[in-house]
Amino acid sequence: MRRSLAARRTSGRRLPDLECPLRAVRLMRLSPGSLIREHSDHDLDAALMGLVRLHVPVTSEAGVEFRLNGSPVALTPGSVWYLRLADPHSVVNDGDVDRVHLVIDAEMNDWLLQMLRAGASAARTG
Asked: Which region among 7-11, 22-26, 58-62 has the lowest average model confidence (pLDDT)?
């Protein structure tokens, strides 16, 4: 399951406005030629644990491949993504530049649930 928080696009240096409790916020880098082997983060199951991880791609290029449940997901810079990371996922950076994401661990609340539903609805209507 994947959902884009399309309404929460970032612009320039401005971070998305998030009206939910934050547990951790950090920049994560994957250097060219690096990979993160397939794994599942069972503590990030929103339905069971009430915790979600949001990804805000800062830099990326065509050589970076993120897979969720075996399918590629195009995480473009400037977008905000919720990905069900309790499912199997992996990343490979076969590009020439670092892949950098702002990674936000947040507690699920009514506002965030509404944003995820809105993103899922927008993705379905495309």
From this structure: 7-11
